[in-house]
Amino acid sequence: MAPKGILGAFSTAMNLILEGKVKETVHNAFWDHLKEQLSATPPDFSCALELLKEIKEILLSLLLPRQNRLRIEIEEALDMDLLKQEAEHGALKVLSLSKYVLN
Asked: Both 48 and 94 in a single domain?
């Protein structure tokens, strides 16, 4: 019979492997779903807009209180109401929006 320590270590290792596989699967499923939505005719921007909303919140949370000009720039560039309207009317400029977020 194997010592309990070895079985415990094996169990922990298996749990870590399983956890990694689950994370990878969820990650891939998310990006596959987003790609599928954006490739649809007409494109479905609902998940992309939610993702942009989260990105906006993260960017704003990283700013210092004195960085008002940058805060205003982010608020204007990622105006979620405007982006939603643009998406609904097929006028969303995905490339320029992507470049803004990545820069």
From this structure: yes
